[in-house]
Fold this sequence. Notes:
Layout: H1 2-19, H2 26-49, H3 52-58, H4 63-76
Helix pairs in contact: 1-2, 3-4
Amino acid sequence: MFALFAVLxxxxxxxxxxxxxxFFRYGFTLSLLICVLPGLHRLxxxxxxxxxxxxxxxxxxxxxxxxxxxxxxxKTSRFRV
Length: 81
């Protein structure tokens, strides 16, 4: 990902310098945006696959009472967990 960022930063910065002073700083911004979006998508996908209840049940410190409390609230309210 770093190599992609370096190449994009160089190419877009040189292209924006060719366009003139009003377009300075946009090469870095666009190359950063192009490199951050796939990482953000990958992170969102990985976090969506993580089950909240599986996390609570594997946590030995307060997992049982916390998960039990969430289930009790879900039973008495209109929201479902």
